[in-house]
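User: Can you help me understand a structure? I only have the sequence.
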Amino acid sequence: MEDMMAQMIKVVKSKYPYEETIEKIKAKVEEIGWSVVAEHDMEKKVGVRVYIIELCNKEFAKKALEKPENRWISAFMPCRLAVADNPDGVYVYGMNMGAFAGMAPGELAEILKKVSEVDEAILSSVL
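Assistant: Let's start by predicting it. Here is the structure, written out as tokens:
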């Protein structure tokens, strides 16, 4: 990946097979009190073994969107993780919310830092 893209996207190699990685992520999302709001099996749609999981925390989302000046963040909502079955293993990709936090103003930055911590916990479930 290019340098800028590498800063914006988190990539982890899962120690589990494809299907188990998906299940572990969904279980961790539920365990931490977040919700899976949508799932996209790209293999069924386009023939590529990628599974996209959209997840959200109602309280964080509400706080992030309350102020009109922060609503630009809605273009990046809900949070997404993509599980890809690559030739050299199973990878999980997600936005680096910590990097976004560094660019966001005030209270929104604090919310994104918390989201980044949750993302880390979810990703650690497959390491």
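Now, to help you interpret it: DSSP finds six helices and five strands in the chain. The mean pLDDT is 94. Let me know which part you'd like to focus on.
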